[in-house]
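Here is an idea for our session: we take a single protein and study its fold together. Start from the sequence, derive the backbone structure tokens from it, and show both lines together. Once you have written the record down, we can walk along the chain together:
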Amino acid sequence: MDLMDIVVLCLEILMICGAILLPIIIITILVNITNKKAKEKITTLEKATKRRNIYRAIFCVILVIVIIFLSNVFLITRRSNSSNRGSINSMNQQERDAFNNYFISYKGLQEGKNVKALLSRVISNLNTYHDQGEKVPTVVLFTKEDMAKELNALSMQTLEGAHYKEETDKDQYLEDIIEIRKSVLDKHSYIVKFRLGKTGIVLGIVIGDVYHLDEEEIEAVDTVLNNALHNLEEYYE
């Protein structure tokens, strides 16, 4: 049970207590008013005390109502967010498309600043789906130095990048994404390609630096990226 679950549990208990206490408070106020009205003589001090007690009781009632209302709003929002985090098997095609478009809108030739924005989305996605590894894509950046090493001949496991399979990978994955983001230069141009897995959502993201390359060299980079995506799919089979 994480901290958020504890908070939700406390709020639910608070709502139950509020639902029980609210009618008790109202009944108590009515009884007090009725009893005091039955008295024929009430001194000025007693009247002032009575008013203060009534004001306090009214304030308590309003406070309980406000707490219950805010708790309901929080719980509704929490449940809505939980439904948005449903497993892949529970996602319909529209939800899968929305998930993919969150990343795929950066597909193709991109400036460095756009690649950084994409990687920021990857980090945001990690924070949302850290307990659902199948929704956290692998990310690999190919620098010009990587191209010189002909890394397309290597398997995906040996490529330096951010790999995520389970929640225990979270810290390392986040560190790797941050390092990749630092390696992206704003003035450079990059090719960004994606691979959908068997589940129909983004499985991997590969990024290749094509700054100051001619068409033939860009085609070579594109081949490297395609090979990496193919190796990625085999890696997760």
